[in-house]
Design a protein that fits this description.
Helix content: 25-40%
Shape: globular
Oligomer: single chain
Strand content: 25-35%
Number of strands: 13
Number of helices: 12
Distance between the termini: 93 Å
Length: 401
């Protein structure tokens, strides 16, 4: 009898428990956020801009932000005292609940970057809905709002184009997780930059990669252009799609090579009691264009070309190191970590004043390049009648970066 009463009570209790997805949120109730932009405003306020998917634009074949296409994204913007305040103000303007788990990109305006991004990062670190794999970029010479408002002809939503640009390998890849790790380890930052440009004869606005922004702690201190950024990519071992172009001494024209694969090693050693950092970089390339009269079927010419390409690569890397050491005093590569791993006692003495010691560190760069292929012809096809000329030598003047 007791068992029967207990069973009846159990069945009664189960019957009153709600079944199914009682707390579900339908996708039709969500405002899917593709990108967020944050800019500085007067009186120490900030402005937040979001790029949202327009429900009616999703899946339309005629959709897109190009000429004649249907606009597939919505821009909303508002200001406030902090990021949480602006998000609350944005939600008041939307009929759907903002959903940030699919956010592709975070854009920071240049003025806010110079002011400091630590307050903004505090919000993203506390919000469990924010993905740490969201990519981050700095708007060079403009605001994040201007970037997000600009359509991009090749993609339906500008946020997709911005993310794909980061993944292209041309510039650095940087997401929120990388930013937090660098700040917590007291390492300087190099965040990709994006800038507005005028396109073609129509002068229509679009955007392009513009190098990297250099941060000391959480504040922007300067920027590297495209050439210096390519040198940085070699320093951080992210040069995946590099192209090296060099002039050939005593010849008109250039030779261009595409990097197939590369390997770099950065080590710290003591020479005469002083720490010296040594970067060794090796790369294998294919010659993709030759507009000179140089015959690359000759082994001696290929060897000389390897030296010229290596000289150009070394010059590019050394130029970037010089800017980091003497112009910005920013260790975005992690040279200090290399010293810490090799000479921890010496690093303890350097760490507290590293940004003053870093410009005086000796950093030696050694590069070597192997040409794997020269194509199906030795001489330039644009020069059908070529007179014999002396082969370039490795002792010629190094190519300018």
């Amino acid at each position: 009898m007791l068992k029967r009463c207990f069973l009846c009570l159990l069945i009664a209790a189960i019957s009153v428990v709600p079944a199914g997805c009682w707390d579900r949120t339908e996708i039709t109730d969500l405002a899917i956020t593709l990108a967020t932009g944050v800019d500085a405003m007067p009186d120490n306020q900030i402005r937040t801009t979001v790029q949202l998917i327009l429900p009616l634009g999703v899946g339309q074949q005629s959709g897109g932000s190009g000429v004649g296409g249907t606009r597939t994204f919505l821009i909303e913007t508002t200001s406030g005292v902090d990021l949480r305040d602006t998000i609350g103000n944005l939600q008041e303007k939307l009929s759907r609940k903002m959903f940030v788990a699919q956010r592709r990109i975070l854009i920071v305006g240049e003025e806010l970057a110079r002011r400091g991004i630590q307050p903004m990062l505090d919000h993203f670190s506390r919000d469990p809905r924010s993905r740490m794999r969201t990519y981050i970029m700095v708007a060079k010479g403009s605001t994040a709002t201007d970037i997000l408002k600009t359509p991009y002809l090749l993609e339906k939503e500008p946020a997709e184009a911005l993310r794909d640009m980061q993944l292209s390998g041309i510039s650095r890849q940087m997401d929120l997780k990388d930013v937090y790790q660098a700040i917590l380890s007291d390492q300087d930052l190099a965040i990709p930059t994006i800038e507005l440009v005028q396109q073609g004869e129509t002068r229509q606005s679009t955007f392009k990669l513009a190098g990297v922004a250099i941060f000391h702690k959480d504040k922007l201190v300067g920027m590297l252009d495209g050439s210096a950024t390519r040198g940085l990519m070699w320093l951080v071992q992210e040069a995946k799609t590099a192209i090296i172009t060099v002039p050939v001494p005593d010849m008109n024209g250039f030779v261009s090579a595409t990097v197939l694969h590369s390997k770099s090693s950065l080590k710290a050693k003591k020479e005469e009691g002083k720490i010296v950092l040594r970067l060794k970089t090796r790369a294998t390339v294919d010659i993709m264009e030759n507009t000179t009269s140089l015959d690359l079927t000759e082994p001696a010419n290929v060897e000389a070309m390897q030296h010229l390409l290596a000289d150009k690569l070394r010059s590019r890397i050394e130029s970037t190191i010089d800017a980091l050491q003497h112009q910005y005093k920013a260790d975005v590569v992690g040279f200090g970590k290399v010293i810490d791993r090799t000479y921890p006692r010496d690093w303890k003495a350097l760490q507290s004043n590293w940004h003053e010691e870093f410009p005086h560190m000796k950093i030696a760069v050694v590069t070597s390049i192997t040409v794997r292929g020269t194509g199906m012809s030795g001489q330039s096809l644009s020069l059908p009648e070529i007179t014999s000329q002396a082969s370039p030598t490795a002792t010629g003047p190094p190519a300018k970066s």
